[in-house]
Amino acid sequence: MSLIETIRASRTVRRQELAATVELTQAVTNVKRAFPDIVTATSVSVGEAIQRLDIALRNWDWEGVTVGNISLAARAFLDGDRIPDAVTYFLKRELEATTSSILLDAVAEAYFSGWTRHDERTRWLASILQARAPHLSFRWKRLFVAVPELLDTDDAPIRLAEKMLIQADPFQWLLDAGLAAPHTGQLSTEAYLAWLKLLPPVMTDQHVERIFGWIRPRGHKPLSGDLAARAVEKLLEPWRSDIPTSEFRTILTDRIIEAFGDPRYESKAEAKAFWPLVAVDRRTTLLRWLAGQSIDALLDIITKATGNHMWPTRHHFWKGLYDKGLVTEAWVALSRPAMAIALNIFSEDSGKAGPAAALQTATGRKKETCLLIMKVGRYTVVEGSHDYRVHLFLNGDRRAPALYQDEYDAEDIMLPQGDRMTRIHDSYDAWQSWVEERVLR
Questions:
Q1: Global pTM value
Q2: pLDDT digit string, tens, across residues 306-332
Q3: How far apart, in whole angstroms, are the C-alpha atoms of residue 336 and residue 424?
Q4: Are the beta carbons of 371 and 411 closer than 8 angstroms?
Q5: Beta bridge partner(s), residue 408
Q6: H/E element holding 330?
Q7: CB 247: neighbour CB atoms within 10 A?
Q8: Residue 115 gets which letter from DSSP?
Q9: Alpha carbons 226 and 215: distance in angstroms, whole number
Q10: Could you tell me if 110 and 79 are in contact, meaning their C-beta atoms sit under 8 angstroms apart?
Q11: Are the C-beta atoms of residues 332 and 297 closer than 8 Å to each other?
């Protein structure tokens, strides 16, 4: 019997507690699962509850002190709030002796949220959960029976990660085991990061969906920020040097951009906040894939928008440099008619990454021009439809247009005719040799 229970028993006759039915227990679990951040509390504030408890201990007068007050004070203590020494001592003793599932729920939640390897407090909380196991609520009791390794105060995250590794859907498995919020708490976070390290390279659709099943589970709040960035890094890790099939590359690109935004749209808040969190080499991998999509998309758009039959030759040339690994980034700027055609093409194709493009805003003779702006080795290259010349700008050249802008003016970008860094598209394709001589150095 706990301290508070002993005190109450000495003053009044306690009513016999009724065992919770399976249906009621399951209903409570469902509520906890749907609203993991909601804490049941009395109408008094945390400060008032602690003050009542402090007065009761000094005067040994427990009139007006409720189990709800004890629960509020205990949660404040477990959350690390500063409270009087006498109350701290009482709560420690109470938690070590309680049979209240409400208080033990708070202990379990504190254990998960603050788990730290080789930590004295973590060991103390684990010892309470082990000693008071028969009095845990059904969901926590079920969880610790299903995964007893969770109470390993030295290696709980890696032990949990090893069990997650053999599950097709680790998030749902933990829900079914009794963990209402698998994303919540330091223990869960460390287990998730350990699980990512243990997973094999992501090379199939099933591998992709397995990771998305954790970071964006249906019906639950998705992971965001650094933790989501670690998942994206895992998804892209095998492809820093290797090249996936075009089908898999499209699937992976579309899933990532659908979830986290297009890294090329720096003006959009979602992408601007997320993509700097992803390691540069993984982000570069995705940009390289998107460059290939941009080059391919422009061929289809220009053909439909202008009927320009000279573009396939240019497409073949630039795609050849891309296949050699020389084109690392690419961005498309479309005339207004071409933009309308692009939106129609990609609405029919339902691609996630395909429609990404800027608007080309020049007037006069260049108003119908579409631009392809690329990073090719040490150059920013600007290519254009119709009679637009190819332009090369060395890195550091202030005249070079930045990639991923919302609008471009084709006339403003043009170098003067006769400049040594620009070339017309002659009918003998000597311009291709001119480009190769420079970018292949």
A1: 0.81
A2: 666 678 888 999 999 999 999 999 999
A3: 24
A4: no
A5: 360
A6: strand 327-334
A7: 9
A8: -
A9: 11
A10: yes
A11: yes
